[in-house]
């Protein structure tokens, strides 16, 4: 069973200069220790609802720092 370990928030811009945030999902298998990038999704994906407040907080932090990328570590083993 793979469990969520990291969420990498990235700000991306289109050719029209509007921007949005996406989340790279990194999962690790507890038994083997193997895993990696599971995929990426829009931050409004329902799969991330459990982390919505946490993600929104870090997006506000990214905006205040003018950052384009932030890596968040999930401290508990939660299935996605």
| Count of distinct structural domains | 1
Total of DSSP H or I helical runs spanning 4+ residues: 1
Total strands: the figure is 4
Mean pLDDT: 79
Strand order within the widest sheet? 3-2-1-4
Strand content: over 45%
Structural class: alpha+beta
Q: What is the chain-wise order of helices and strands?
A: EEEHE
Question: In percent, how helical is the residue content?
Answer: 10-25%
Tell me the radius of gyration: 13 Å
State the shape: elongated
Distance between the termini: 10 Å
Main beta sheet strand tally, sense and closure: 4 strands, antiparallel
Description:
By secondary structure, this protein is an alpha+beta fold. The protein has one domain. It is 18% helix and 45% strand. The protein has 1 helix and 4 strands. A 4-stranded antiparallel sheet has the order 3-2-1-4, covered by helices on one side. Strand 2 and strand 3 form a beta hairpin. The longest helix has 14 residues. The radius of gyration is 13 Å and the shape is elongated. The mean pLDDT is 79.
Notable traits:
80 residues; alpha+beta; 1 helix
Spell out the blueprint of helices and strands:
Elements: E1 2-13, E2 19-29, E3 35-42, H1 52-65, E4 69-73
Antiparallel strand pairs: 1-2, 1-4, 2-3
